Amino acid sequence: MAIDTLFLCFIEDCQHNDGVGKPYFMGRGLMRFVESTHKSITDKI
After folding, report:
1. Are 34 and 10 in contact (CB under 8 A)?
2. What total of structural domains would you count in the chain?
3. Taking the complete model, does pTM exceed 0.70, yes or no?
């Protein structure tokens, strides 16, 4: 349940903030993890 909440917060952060004018709340480590996981999944498809 906690992981689901974490990913929902990540999605909300990406939708409402752009990183430049409105900085992300997530840590860089989380952002890198999700991006690398997404790349890994899309490479397999």
Report:
1. yes
2. 1
3. no
CA dihedral for 29, 42, 44, 41, sign (positive or negative): positive
Q: Residue 43 to residues 7, 19, 20, 30, 40: CA-CA distances in angstroms?
A: 21, 25, 28, 20, 5
Q: Which domain does 12 fall in, by range? A: 2-43
Residues 6+ apart with CB under 8 A from 24: 13, 14, 17, 31
pLDDT single digits (tens) 25-38: 999 998 898 889 88
